[in-house]
Amino acid sequence: MDTHVLASGCAAADTDTSTDCPTVLTPSTTTIAERDVIKLESSVPLAGKVFILHDHKTGRVLTLLDGHVSLQPPGTPGSAYRWMCEEREGWLGFKNIASGTYLGHNFWGDVCAAAHQHMGWENFCVRIQPNGGYVLLMTHWAQLWPLKQKDEGGMQKLLKAEAPVKDGNVWVFVEV
Q1: What is the pTM of this model?
Q2: Is the pLDDT of residue 22 over 80?
Q3: Which of 12, 37, 67, 102 is the most buried (most CB within 10 A)?
């Protein structure tokens, strides 16, 4: 009987279906600290796909938490951070899987997820960035304004900002 050493370091015999392997202790959970650098590659945002949107700079995710859109650490309890990408009349829209509401903006330009239909205030396009990721752009009359982070009361909120594209948050789209 021949015994082979597998790439994992385990031994397996040709005539045996069992594997002789050393015990490896694996933690049941993994914690990502905010200070950890998260290196992610972005998928292309396409209609019909589900994504987690990571802020390229902080690694935080675009989250619906207690009815408000904000940037939170991945896995924040009670947060809904999966977004279905849809398309309407050439515009992208992002529907939160848990709430069924679309990412958009209100009258004051604050980013929210309150609409149950993909209409004008829920229209997005994306612009690829040379160092990876995409800037999300929202319609403002005949212009496109980027989503930009705003710190308010200890929460990191988002708004559509009258700012150059380069000043918008860069997003990494992770397909799930």
Answers
A1: 0.75
A2: no
A3: 102
